[in-house]
Amino acid sequence: MKTDVSHERLREAQELGHEARAHPDDHAALKLWLRMLACTTQIETEIRQRLRAEFDISLARFDYMAQLYRHPEGLMMRELSRQLMVTGGNVTGLTDELQNEGLVVRKPSPTDRRAWIVQLTPHGRTGFEAMARMHEGWIVDIFGGLSDTTFQQLYAGLGRLRVQMLADQPEASPPRRGPASTKETP
Known about the structure:
The chain has about 190 residues and is mainly alpha-helical. Helix content is about 60%, strand content about 5%.
């Protein structure tokens, strides 16, 4: 891996984050993983702060409302829990809070009397749309320093990585050990 000017600038600014764990002799894949993790953490922290400052809302609530916005017909609470990758208890707590604020409504499922369907209220939908517009602008701004070429290469490369990871998931085999057996060609 070539000398990385950005690493030196981040080190000088004491902003290495997860990258501080890397040693110069570490494999390039490990350094890339730590850089991706550092970027994700930094972006998530920025978005959390902006959501709190602008709308007095947590990222968890924003994500919850985003899932419901994509499903105007509503979602069963267990499906919402699955999509958010959180426990049912977390979803129940958020649902209670947002329902008390008039942002969501909980209705019994017509097909399963033990289940509830949660939907955004009109007030919740309108409020989320305003937040989503600002959120999109923040994301565009954060990535705005990348050239179109860099952006497309990064997007395509990460897409290839995700596809590779799906293809590498064995049915019931133990995890792969050691270096990968194939390398990507440009």
